[in-house]
Each structure stands twice: as C-alpha cells, then as structure tokens.
Amino acid sequence: MEEERVEESKVRVLIENATNSTDSEVHPRLLKAIKSVVRNSDSELRVAAQTLMDLMKFDHSQVRYLTLLVIDELFMRSKLFRSIVVEKLDQLLTLSVGFRRSMVLPEPAAVASTLRSKAIEFLEKWNDSFGIYHRKLRLGYDYLKNTLRLQFPNIQANAMRRQQERMEREIRSKEILLRKYGMLKENFSSIKEEIQSTLDEIKECLDIVHSKEDDGDMIPLDDDTTEEFRSVELRQIRLAALKGEMVHENHDNKVIFDALRELYKLMSKHMVSIQEWISVLVRVDSTDIRFRDSALREFIDLQNSLRVVKRQCEELGCNFTESANHDDEDEDFWEEGPVGATKDGGTSEKKNEDLVVVSTSNVIKSADNSKTGSGAHVGNVVKNGEVCSSNSASSLRNKLLADAPVIEWGSFLNNWDSRTDILANQRGLELQSHWGRVDYDATIPAEKIAELNVRASLYKEDQPEIQPCRAPLRKGGLCPRRDLKVCPFHGPIVPRDDEGRPLNVSSSLDETTPDLKIGSVEQLVRQAVKNVRTRDKEAAETREHDKKALKRAKLAKIREHNAGVLQDAALASTSRSSAFGENMETGGEGTGSDRNKKKTLASMLRKKVSTKDRLSRRLLGAKSSALTKRELKLNEDANYREAFPNQW
Amino acid sequence: MWKNIRDREAGKLRPNSFANRVKSDRTSSLQLSNHKDIVSPHRGSVNSLQVDLTEGRYLLSGASDASAAVFDIQRATHSEGLIAKHQCIFAVDKQHEHGHKYAISSAIWYPVDTGLFVTGSFDHHINVWDTNTTQVVVNFKLPGKVYRTAMSSLATSHMLIAAGTEDVQVRLCDISSGAFSHTLSGHRDGVMSVEWSASSEWVLITGGCDGAIRFWDIRRAGCFRVLDQSQSQLGRRPPISGWTANKLSTSKSLLASQGSNMKSRIPHKKLTNGNATKPSSTGKLPAKGSTRQRLHPGLLSGQDRAVSHYGAVTGLKVTGDGMYLLSAGSDSRLKLWDVESGCNTLVNFETIRLQTNKPLQLATSQDSSLVFAPCMATVKAFDMWTGKTSLTFSGHYEGVNCCWYNFPDQELYTGGNDRQILVWSPSQNSTELDWESTADKDNWSD
C-alpha cells in the first residue's frame, strides 16, 4: 500500500515535470519514463489520467499543450486510458479547443493557437483510429466539425483524394498512349516510307558529293604523288584517311549541300519522332504483341541507319548546325580589326582614332582579300572558304549579320527559331508537390515560347581604354598611371613615344592631315560632329561620376546614422524581461534549476514591453528607471506568487 | 441472472416480477450506445421526441429548424461495421408546401395509431399530418407561439389536442371538427407545459409561466385545482388498506401491457369518487377537502393564486399509474406532486441546473422508479422516491431539451441543442464485447 502510494506520486511527479517546461515538445526521456511506469499497472494509469485531466485545467496554455501531447501519447497506446479519457472528452475538448465562449483558452495566445490546432488534429486522428469503438469520440468530432464547423486538417481524406487523382492521371496517360499507339498502327507504313525516302535521298546526296569530291581531289593529289613518287597503297590509305575531311562545299556542289542541309534538318526531326514512337511502343501494353515487336524492331533499325547517315553527314565536315557560328566568328574577326589597331597604334590621338579605324579596317580587308585570293590551297581553314563564298555570294546576309545583335549564350538558344509547340508539364521529373491538378498534355504554343524568350538587353557602355601616362620616370621606365586627363605627377596626359617624350601636337596634326586629305568633306563633317559628341559625352560622364560620388557619400552618412539609431534601440530593448530574470537571479536566494524553469513559464505569460514603454523609460532617465525597475520587480514577484502558489 | 431464471422455472418467482427485475437491471445499466446511431437530419436544436405508443417503433422528432422527422428505431437503414445507422424514414421541413415556418416546439404521435402526428410550432400553427402521405390534414391557427401540445392516450370519447401557447388561454383543438372545442382560461401568463392525466381522459394538467399548475376537468368550466407548493406531505401516500397497498406496489412495478386492467380500474375509481367527492380515508389529506369541494366552480381567490414553482413551470410529467405528477420549473427545481391530494411530496431531487427558457420534456421509467430529467448538457436519472441521482448521461455538447424512455426496449432517447439525437441503451452483451476487445487493444510500442 505504502509502496503504491509512492509509485503514484512518482507518476504524478513525472507528469508534472514533463509538462512544466517551455519547450514545444515533451522531453522524450520523461515521456518514456511515464509510459514505462504507466504500462505496468492500471492504477497508475488511472492516476496518470486523473493528473493529466487536472493539468488540463491549468491556467496556462503551455502546460495544457504539453499535457495534451502526453495524453495523445497514452491515448494511442492504452485502451484503458482511452476509455477514461473518452468519458471526459467534452471536458478535454473544452479545455484544449476552447470552443465554449465562457471558457476561452488562457494566455499566451501563440501557444493557445497551436494548442487548438493540435487538439483538433489529435481529435481527427483519434476519431479515425478509434472512432468506431467510442461513440463519444464520434460525437465530439461530429460536433466540432458539423455544428461548430471547425476546420479539420482532413489528413486521411486528402491522402485518398491524392491517390485517386494519381490513378486518374495514370489512366488518362494510358489512354493517350493507346490513342497514339492506334495512330501509329494506322500510319505505320507511311511513316516508315517517309523516313526511308529521306534516308535514301541523303544517301544519294552523299554519294554525289563524294563522287564529285573524289574527282576534284584526285587531280592535285595525283600531282603531288607523282612528284613524290609514292606507292599506290599509301595513296589509298591517305585518301581513305582524308576522305571525310576532304569534301568541302564550293560553287559546284553548293546546291547539293543545300539539299543536304535541308535533309539533315528533316532527319533530325525524324530522329526525334522515332524516339517518341519507340517510347510509345515500349510504354504501351497492348494485346497485339506481334505488331508491337515488329514495329519496334523496324524503328530501331531505322534509327540505327539514321544515326549512321547522320554521322556520315557530320564527317563530311559540313557541320550544319554550326554554320551560323562560323559567320559570327567572321564578324568577330572583322570587329577585332579596330580594337587591335587602337591597341597597336596607341600613339595616335583619340580625336582621330575613328579615322584610323576606317583606314586600318580597309587595310585588313584588302589583306584578307588578297590572302583568300592567293591562297588557292583547298586545304585551308573552312572559315576562310566560308568567308570567300559569303563575300562573293551572300553579301546581303553579311549585311544582315552586321545588323544582327550579339546575344549572350543561354539555354534558350536551344530552341531558337523553332516552330514546334512545347509540352508545358513534361520536365522529366515526377514532381509530387504541386498545388493542384496538373494537365500533363498542356502545351505552350511556339509564339508564346518566342514571347517568353524575348531578351531584355541592357545597354553596355564600352569602357574606353584609358591611356597610361607614359611619362619617363627617374628610376627608368614609363609612368604606368592611367588617368583620364591629368596625371597628378606628370601633368596633362599627352601622347608620347616609346621613350616617353611627348609627341608634338602639331606633328600629330600633320600626321592626320594626309588622312584628312583622303577623306571627303562629308566624312570630315561627320567626324567633327562625332568628336563634339564624344567630348560632350565625356563631360557628362565626369559630371555624373561626381554626382554619384556625392550621392554615395550622402547615403553612407544616412546609413551610418541609421545604424547608430538601431543600435541604440537594440540596446534599449534588450528584453527587459531577461534583465529582470537576471535581477531576480542575483537578488533571490536559493535559485534552483527547476525554479528557473518556472520562471520561464511565468515569463511566457508576461506582457511584452511595448515601444511606448521603452520610450517613456528612456525619457524618464536613470534614477526613475531604477525606481520603476524595483517596483516592477515587486509586482512581478507578486504575480508570480499568485500564479504558482504551490511552487513558490 | 441464472438463479432468477431457475427460480422462475421453479415457480418461486412470478413471471412479471422476473421480467421487472431484468428490466430494471437493464435500465440501471443504460449508457451511450455505440451500436445504434440516429443520423439527425435536423439543423437546429431538437425540441421534442416521442416514440409511438402503439408499436414502440417509430421515433418522431421536432426541431428548431422547422423540421420534423420519423425514424425507425428497430430496423437500421444501413450499418457501418457494427454501428447501425438509423436514418430518418421521412422528414418534413420548411420546403414542404404546408410546412412550418418557424421552430417546431412539439411533435407528438396520434395516440391510437401511427397514421397521424401533430406538430406545434412557433409560427402560431398546429399541423396534423398524415404520416403516409406526409401531407397536412388539419391546421389550427392559434393566437401565439405554441409551446407544447398533448393528446390523451386514454381518450376513447374525444380527439382533442391540448395546446399550451404564449397566450394565457389553453385551447383544445378538436381534430374531428377542425375547430377549438374549449378555451380554458385561468393562467396569468403563457402556458409552457401541457399534460393529460394518465388516469382520467377528461383531466388536463397545465403548467404556466406564472408558476401555477392547474388541473382542468374538460367537462366542466374552470379549473378544479391549483397546486400549491406550500401544501406538502412527507413521502409517499400511505396505502389505503392492506391488500390494496400490496396490489398497488406490485402494480407500480408492472408493465403497461400487463397492468391494463389496473389502469382501467384507477380511472374508474377516480371518475366515481375522485372528482366529485374526496376519498374517505387519505391519511394526511388536509381537512379542507370539503371546502374545496364546495368551492369548485370558482376557486377561492387565495387558492387561485397559489404557485407551485417560483418562475415558470417548464415541464410536466404524469407517472405511468397516474398517481403522481412531476414538474420542472425555471427555479431549477424538480417537484413530485401527489395528484390525489394535490400536495408537494417534498422529495428533494438533486438537480443542479435546469434550462429555464425552453419547455423541457421529462421521462419516467415504466415502473415509475426513475425520472429522467435534462439538466443542461446532461440528462440525469433520479430515483423517484428519494431524489438521489442514480445515473448521469453526459454526451451532448449543448443543452438537452427532451428525453424519451422507450419501455419495450429499455432505451432512452435524448435530443439537445447540438442537433443530435442520442440513443442510450443497456450495456452490450458479451459477444459484442468480445468483438470490441479483439479489435481495440493496447498497443505499447515501447
């Protein structure tokens, strides 16, 4: 008997310890201890139930919340506990959900709201698992749900619905597959024929190209070999080795290459479609296995032959997809002319830089022309050949290319200018965390894609190359400082020669005169306008620069000020409650560890110190603040004593 | 249990007393039924419940959303697992072309068969419905909200619906003619409860908001008795003589079916000597019985002003044998009156609080040993003669308005403001327990 009483008190103490904390969860060790004690005897379980129900009446949401967690743990495990708790379910719900207006949940409000949601969640869980055994559970659930219309999380129903949705989706996709399969069955022969015909055409084209090139190549090669006297075998080997690279586009076979390009495009389309059909065939589970197998086999064969042909085409050296890139490189080449010129001709003054540009580019062009003209060697780089052909044939394209904007590289270039619709919800990932129903066949039309791919480009100013000062230094070498106009050590920056001697202004003028002579009057006028403009721009730039600097300084000042204010505020608000805690800790005698805990519980109830309070405190000064502090502390003590009379 | 059966077989125990023992055992083990759910179609508080008196099978409920519904309480419409769900056979509500507009305060069966039922509503109307066609057959317009309607289960010579309304006058509506046959005036405020005597088909008992309980003999003008709470006697009336006492005490514990001859005898006795002359030997009857006899047509003014409750009388219930009357008042008191002497028996019922603003429907067990009274959100069963609480039924989440005890099945039905109709039945037998224990077990994971 005595022992039992001790045991009883043990459960009670355990539960009280477990619920007396500020954590959002019951301490697992305590919980385990409670469970193990309660599991062994029914009388303890009864005591535990009684204690828990008493604790639910505690005027603190945190205690109630932890108690509810313990109740849930035991409820899910013990039948006896269930029957005891269910008897008092209405009381429990009143205390945890707080649906009666006369008995609202106690402070603190944040914990109270989690308590409520948790209680509702638990009720639903209990009802799902034990509702059929306990009418009262059903009644409580029904009352909260249908009469009070509280929002239940509806976990089970949601899971069911999701399952059903997935099933539906699968069925739908299966249907679509079947439909595709039917379509394939109907036009299998036509598809096959189409692909086969393109294949044949490509092969023919390739044959033609090869035969031509062979003819063309034979002659020079023959010339070489006859002179060098090589064996036929070697020649054969070399020919075989060179064969792929040997073939190049020229005036003669341009038509064929164009056709090839077209066919190549077609072929890649076919490749994609064949891939699709194969996946359809693999995924569909139809009854007609023989057709499936045969179709699959034929498609795979076709795919293989297509691959072979494709490789051949690529080996041919005409990388069709990259043809545009070559042109870009050409452009780069042309653009680079002036840059190089300015770099090399750093001596020239800025004013007539543009003139220089014109002249140098001309020179380069001519040089290039001569190079291509003289370079009759066919084994030259493809680029040059392209340049040659484009120079002569498609000057229009060149002009267009000159206008065309340069775009940064990005993944959107993959479907540049493509006219196919794109499936919106096929990303290859099975994403489960979407928010609603997903239409897996939704497509985004090509126009929309184009719209989406519209690139906003920012105007980027070319940073002008700032010339180094280049004044001769005493210890030797040239001054490496780069200033816009004036070097702080060597005065205004003037063009200098390699030794650092300034070039005469007049001589530079002289230098430019011949150029001027060459340029027409119109050019001169244009140049003058341009120069004026550049100067204006420069002036504006410097002005802007200054302005920016000023602004930045101002901003920095403001920021500093703000930081200071914030810091002050933070200092002032370093939670008064915590300060009090310290006070009490230092002032009070014999502060135990569990008293600390209680203190935090009480502090949860404490009202937050508002800004107004803080301001008034600051205004009142140190003396009065000390006074109020003492007063508040007294109050606090009184409150605390009131709230926890049994624990003081 | 087995001993009882053996005793009965041996003839040591009379069959009816055996039956009574079993029944009282079952009644004392009433609890919330887990195997019988009534699916309430009501969207308002349930104000009235009654199981029909002929078959004991159909439960009629009236609710505040102007709907009334009939349930078959013996055959479930469907079942979920082992839970039998009883859905309503039919329901009439506002959508019905002759339906009530406002809350139905009282719904009762026609006592003779289940072909008719009567609903009284706050829209000032009493409708008499044909159960089979669910159409209104007769319609009465009353001067105020109808609080309670009642029909006599004994009546053989009249078909009157007694209606207690907001109005001070009690009206008797004759179904056969469709008109008011009587207008009984005497109350000084609205009438919240109406009850026919279980011993005489002519005697009507009404309880008003003025706190008075009046007895009317509908064959004569005026009321013939007003119960006075200051007139009291202690405990039960002593038996008239030795053998009748025995007879009475047994008859009290008898069933209605068995004691039908008994019932007919009591009214007979009442009719012969109950109203006209006082019974000669009633021990504690006050000596002014003769004065009351003389004063009958217009009672003495002091007597006329007597009150039985402070505040309104919210519920009335006559015991099965018609000898006692239970009344509930808004003063949260439950009182037991001796009908014969008109005295308060001073039984102290341990009520805590009663609803005050609505009429309450009380119920008694068949042998009149238990009283079922709605006390706020619970229903309590009191011992009739000591007033001790023997059972507490808590399951409703809001106030309970009405309860009905079904004699044949020993089941209790309660209806409350939370729209539910709950079934309280004797605890389950062993097979069901087995099922439950197999499925619902402890599961300690650690």
TrEMBL record, chain A:
Segments for region (Disordered): 576-599
Record key words, sorted: Chromosome, Coiled coil, DNA damage, DNA repair, Metal-binding, Zinc, Zinc-finger
Cross-referenced InterPro entries: ENTH_VHS (IPR008942), UVSSA (IPR018610), UVSSA_C (IPR049431), UVSSA_N_a-solenoid_rpt (IPR049408)
Pfam families attached to this UniProt entry: DUF2043, UVSSA_N
Domain UV-stimulated scaffold protein A C-terminal: 403-504
One Gene Ontology term, aspect cellular component: chromosome
Superkingdom field: Eukaryota
One BP annotation, GO: transcription-coupled nucleotide-excision repair
Subcellular location: Chromosome
GO molecular function: RNA polymerase II complex binding; zinc ion binding
PANTHER family: UV-STIMULATED SCAFFOLD PROTEIN A
Family: Belongs to the UVSSA family.
Protein name (record): UV-stimulated scaffold protein A C-terminal domain-containing protein
Protein's organism: Cucumis sativus (Cucumber)
UniProtKB/TrEMBL annotation, chain B:
Region Disordered: start-end pairs: 257-293
Superkingdom classification of source: Eukaryota
GO BP: proteasome-mediated ubiquitin-dependent protein catabolic process; protein polyubiquitination; transcription-coupled nucleotide-excision repair
Claim: Repeat is one of the keywords in the record: yes
GO cellular component: a single term: nucleotide-excision repair complex
Alphabetical list of SMART domains matching this protein: WD40
Polar residues biased stretches: 272-283
Record-linked InterPro entries: Rad28/ERCC8/Ckn1/ATCSA-1, WD40/YVTN_repeat-like_dom_sf, WD40_PAC1, WD40_repeat_CS, WD40_repeat_dom_sf, WD40_rpt
PANTHER family tied to this protein: DNA EXCISION REPAIR PROTEIN ERCC-8
Name of this chain's protein: Uncharacterized protein
Source organism (scientific name): Cucumis sativus
Lineage: Eukaryota, Viridiplantae, Streptophyta, Embryophyta, Tracheophyta
